[in-house]
Specification:
Blueprint: E1 4-9, E2 11-15, E3 18-24, E4 35-46, E5 54-59, E6 62-70, E7 73-77, E8 82-85, E9 90-94, E10 99-104, H1 107-112, E11 114-124, E12 135-139, E13 146-147, E14 153-159, E15 161-162, E16 165-166, E17 176-182, E18 187-189, E19 195-202, E20 204-207, E21 210-213, E22 216-220, E23 226-229, E24 233-240, E25 247-249, E26 252-254, H2 257-268
Antiparallel strand pairs: 1-22, 2-3, 3-4, 4-11, 5-10, 6-9, 6-11, 7-8, 7-10, 9-12, 13-14, 14-17, 15-16, 17-24, 18-23, 19-22, 19-24, 20-21, 20-23, 25-26
């Protein structure tokens, strides 16, 4: 068996005022380790005065990870968090039994416009932690360890540990998430995990006899694997131990289908908590009006 078990290409989806490339979940692969969802926002140029807004919407049973390469937004949630997120920072929100959040343009960014490019990720949590109280972590870029694992390679460890350093972000699923940049022609050995994938953001990677272009994710076999950049390339390594089957309905993830039904009914009935200062709009459940 080769190092690549499966290759998944991004599919276009509309989110808020922009189109994203959706990688996970895919009909061919629902999860990689605890990772259940991966969207790439942009790159897209936002005109002055337009902004990028996602109105208040709910989650249960998962954690959201937001990581910008370009652009910025303001995260607000029903536990009272207000956090501006800029390139290189890591936002990690764990929904637990239920949380509502919004993502909106900062007024200054909305006024001037600019480029948006980043990753939106969901992580499942262990079954026994699905009903925890919601929580939020913000880790500025300067706190996320950066190393040079080989010539022409730079790695920033966002979650978990790799190349001898550990991220300050904590998560009960023990995920691995590493942002890697390679100069053209540079090679690097990938950190290992029980389940693991690489996703090419920009550029392209050579692996055995395959070339992975931008917006492709390759699910990899365990064991030592090296990749080489055929041009200047940025990619992420993601993975961890599998958690068992998870069910998904819209913005809800759970090991128990009944919890998805209860969450759907609660959102339609408007009994979820509200966001202080952002409670006049909401994203309807699909098929629901207003």
């Amino acid at each position: 068996m080769g190092s690549i078990e499966l290759v998944i290409e991004g599919r276009a989806r509309g989110v808020g005022s922009i189109t994203v490339a959706r990688i996970l979940p895919s009909p061919r692969r629902r999860m990689v380790g605890p990772f259940t969802f991966l969207d790439v926002m942009g790159p897209v140029d936002i005109a002055p005065g337009v902004g990028f807004d996602v109105a208040p919407h709910p989650h249960i049973g998962l954690s959201t990870v937001t990581y910008f390469l370009e652009g910025e937004n303001v995260h607000r949630d029903s536990i009272g968090t207000v956090q501006k997120n800029v390139p290189g920072d890591l936002n990690l929100m764990t929904a637990g039994r239920g949380v509502v959040h919004s993502e909106r343009a900062d007024p200054a960014f909305r006024a001037r416009g600019g480029r948006m490019h980043g990753l939106q990720i969901w992580l499942a949590v262990p079954t026994e932690r699905e009903d925890d109280e919601p929580s939020f972590q913000h880790h500025p870029q300067r706190t996320l360890p950066s190393v040079e694992p080989s010539d022409g390679a730079c790695a920033r460890v966002l979650l978990g540990d790799a190349y001898g350093v550990r991220s300050p972000a904590t998560h009960p699923s023990a995920p691995l998430l590493v942002d890697l940049e390679l100069a053209a022609g540079a090679s690097v050995e990938l950190p290992d995990a029980l389940e693991r994938a690489i996703f090419v953001i920009t550029g392209s990677l050579a692996l055995e006899d395959a070339t992975l272009p931008a917006l492709q994710l390759a699910v990899l076999a365990p064991g030592p694997i090296s990749v080489r950049a055929t041009e200047a390339t940025r990619f992420v390594v993601l993975g961890g131990a599998p958690l068992g089957p998870r069910f998904m309905d819209w913005n809800f993830v759970s090991s128990d289908r009944d919890k998805l039904v209860r969450a759907r009914d609660a959102w339609i009935a408007r009994t979820f908590p509200t966001i202080p200062g952002d409670d006049t709009e909401h994203v309807p459940y699909p098929g629901q009006h207003g």
